[in-house]
Amino acid sequence: MPSAFLPDRAFVKIAGADAEHFLQNLITTDLGALAESELRPGALLTPQGKILFDFLISRDGDGFLIDIPADQIDAFIRRMTMYKLRSPVTIEALPVTGATVTWGESAEGVADHRFALAGTELRRQEGRTGDPADREGYDALRILHGVPESGADYALQDAFPHDVLFDKSGGVSFRKGCYVGQEVVSRMQHRSTARRRVVILSAEASLPATGTEITIGGKPIGALGTVAGERALAIVRIDKAGEAMAAGEPILAGDVPVTVTLPSWSGLTFPAAAEEA
Q1: What's the pLDDT at 94?
Q2: Straight-line distance from the first to the last Cα atom of the chain, in angstroms, rounded to the nearest whole number
Q3: Rounded Cα distance, 1 and 138, in Å
Q4: pLDDT by residue (tens digit) across 140-199?
Q5: For residue 199, what are the contacts with CB-CB under 8 A and spacing of at least 6?
Q6: Which residues contact 275 (CB under 8 A, 6 or more apart)?
Q7: pLDDT in tens, 109-142
Q8: Which of 234, 238, 237 minimizes the C-alpha distance to 211?
């Protein structure tokens, strides 16, 4: 059973009588749709609708467990404490370093909804268990299924939830009511103005490093995110990519020609012209 230890994760427990109501009014995830033993992606947005913090959230006893990048935990707790005011809610960093992910048959832990959509059972749990890390295997699985992560694939405060497929992966709700940044995100949804999307790149040669520009006719449409040999993730302008593919124009990562596909579970297709995006 493959497994990987992710040392760059940390955990926050938010609990108390008002925990669900408190979070439901702040974050993008619809907690009413969150099942027991399930992880879903989520974010706290800026008022402008961009991702300020992103995380995975699951139910945990009388509250919720938030799996978040370790370098964001202190700032996240400060921000959530600012919103807390007098709500009967506790916000606590857990004394746990890192997370373990396992996939394949007999995986243990809480099921990650993002991978379930792609037909793969992957589970997560706090702390280090089992065999030594296989981070490369985990990253290769993320690339295969089009599952991005902040830091490697996008910068916080630079991406909208649509950019990272939260609208397809259960990470953002358009029905539950108001939360921080909701107006901007809902407008993008109803006007179908999302142009930047996560794609999977493949090539016949090794791809260059993360951050390398992806270009069409010398003009950038995005940049490489996580790279594993001849495959990578990227966030690109899918209207521009669709035009190029319809015209037979090459798409390059650095100087390497690439094939660009959208994750099949997303249900998205490339537009052939800008007005069809």
Answers
A1: 97
A2: 41
A3: 12
A4: 999 999 999 999 999 999 999 999 999 999 999 998 889 999 999 999 998 888 899 999
A5: 146, 222, 233, 234, 235, 236, 238, 241, 260, 261, 262, 263
A6: none
A7: 999 999 999 999 999 999 886 555 689 999 999 9
A8: 234
Greatest distance between any 2 Cα atoms in the chain: 59
Task: Give the type of residue at 274.
Answer: A
Strand order in the sheet with 38-45: 3-6, 99-103, 122-126, 110-112, 38-45, 51-60, 63-69, 9-15, 90-93
Q: What is the DSSP letter of 150?
A: B
Q: Which residues contact 21 (CB under 8 A, 6 or more apart)?
A: none
Between CA 2 and CA 56 the distance in angstroms is 21
- CA 168 distance to own-chain centroid: 10
State how far the Cα of 118 lies from the Cα of 108, in Å rounded to an integer: 18
Q: How far apart are CA 122 and CA 164, in angstroms?
A: 19
Number of other residues whose CB lies within 10 A of the CB of residue 129? 13
Q: What are the DSSP calls for 4-27, one per residue?
A: EEETTEEEEEEESTTHHHHHHTTS
Domain over 3-185 is classified CATH 3.40.50.720: no
Question: What is the arithmetic mean of pLDDT over 78-94?
Answer: 94
> Which residue intervals of the chain bear CATH 2.40.30.110?
195-276
Which tokens is 3 given?
């497994």
Fold of 195-276: Elongation Factor Tu (Ef-tu); domain 3 (2.40.30)
Instruction: Render the burial of 95-115: b for 16+ CB within 10 Å, e for the rest.
Output: eeebbbbbbeeebebbbbbbb
Q: Distances from the Cα of 188 to the Cαs of 91, 110, 117, 127, 160, in angstroms? A: 32, 31, 23, 38, 9
